[in-house]
Predict the 3D structure of the following.
Amino acid sequence: MADGEQTIEKIRERFGDAVVGQGSYRDQHWVELKAEKLVEVCTWLRDDPAMNFDYLIDATAVHWPERDLAFEMVYHLCSYARNDVLRIKVALADGQAVPTLSGLWKAADWNERETFDMFGIRFDGHPDLRRILMHDEYTDYPLRKEFPLYRG
Amino acid sequence: MEQTFNRHPDNPDIVTINMGPSHPATHGVLQLVLQLDGERVVSCVPHLGYLHRGMEKIAENRSYLQFIPYTDRMDYLSPLAANVGFALAVEELLGVKVPPRCEVSRVICCELARLGSHQLWLGTHALDLGAATVFFHTFKDREWHYDLIEDLCGARLTTSFARIGGMRHDMEADWLGRLREFVDAMPKRIDEYEALLTGNTIWLQRTQGVGKIGPEDAIAYGMTGPVLRAAGVEHDVRKTRPYSGYENYEFEIPSGTEGDIYDRYLVRMEEMRQSVRILDQALRNLPDGPYHIDDPKIYLPPKARVLQGMEELIHQFMVVTEGFDCPAGEVYHSTEVPKGELGFYIVSTGGVSPYRLRIRSPSFNNVATLPHLVEGGLIADVIANIASLDPVMGEVDR
């Protein structure tokens, strides 16, 4: 199954300027969006009957310290009705906030808290952006690449 | 009256109490801070992380093979299923397809794990609500189940039985015979569990109409597994995105209508029966042939060949000490484990370790619904709700 391919075509038709890039591996397709367009596109993806992405599987991040935009948010969306999965990416500079999706999917609440906890990425408009796995007094962001794997 | 501790500054009727992280009914190290107005729960704030071991970080420094033991320690009540889920994700990244005997072996592992996990859930759930007898029934059978797992892979909980491209070793005829006895005995045993609870007035009163969640909310929270299906959403990864040949088995996906604790109970009871059904088919249709791929760069070559051939010796040495190179790319692969959708998102830039491994655990999203389920209800129902979600903190915290 070519996951997400037709959806990306439709996003391009409708929000051409929101799309930064796209790609695929093993027939799983991803689309990269501009941070400021994320909520607009996701709202459409959730509410348009032909899209119907009602389920946010996961939201997380990847740290690419050698890139200019060092962080990448990665969202996996699923439409139960159409059995389709779409991967959305948003590139961010260090310190740049990204709008929250917790208003669209309640699942984003805890996923974004975990991403904040592990990477230090801030989510604009999040109702309760606190650490979730680490304790509140903790100051590091363990999944950043500069965080050592061993403390010798 | 003397001012007592933990009263709300503006409303002295509201008391804050702390439940867990060490509490027998939180099923692990889950902490809930509850605000109570008498018996009513005004607010519930879960605190996680007591079992956080940084598995996603650890994975960045391990070969794919070395990460398999960590998957045992996520949902430690069904490690066989997590082993298989991880192996499948890495195989997707590699573009490797395992032989039929391996696929059926994996289905046996996954369904055995489901049975054991649901037996534990049922026993402890009933015990939490005061029905101690059920616990003895399910734990007696679970002991049998664990004896089988121990005979299969030498460990009861830390199974590490799947390998990238195969299984650790074959399922032998003798063991399959003992599994057959277990599978044949289970339907009657499940009837016995049900006879204790399904029509039991106390059980009905404690579970019916309690902890309700509707299909829209369940989907929005990202609930998966039996708790989602109890809310009326018939979604199961085994059906929608079959893996390991699940499309070749006849089984049904039970679902509920009310989305309450009782429906979650009924769904899991039926799932146990369906697991038995799948196990029966798997045992009848287990094909002969290899149980792993024939690629010594990924799957360890047979010991006999290692002792005689230089080439095989080198392969074994490389797989064990360094691991194997994966192509650059990224995949998301999910499986239906007893708690719901367990997904692995692997980002590889080439090399022997993942650049990033994200574990999407079902219990994490399921526990996130707790405030929704318990707020406005009674404090006694908090325990019933936790048990009905069947969370495993090893998987929530990772």
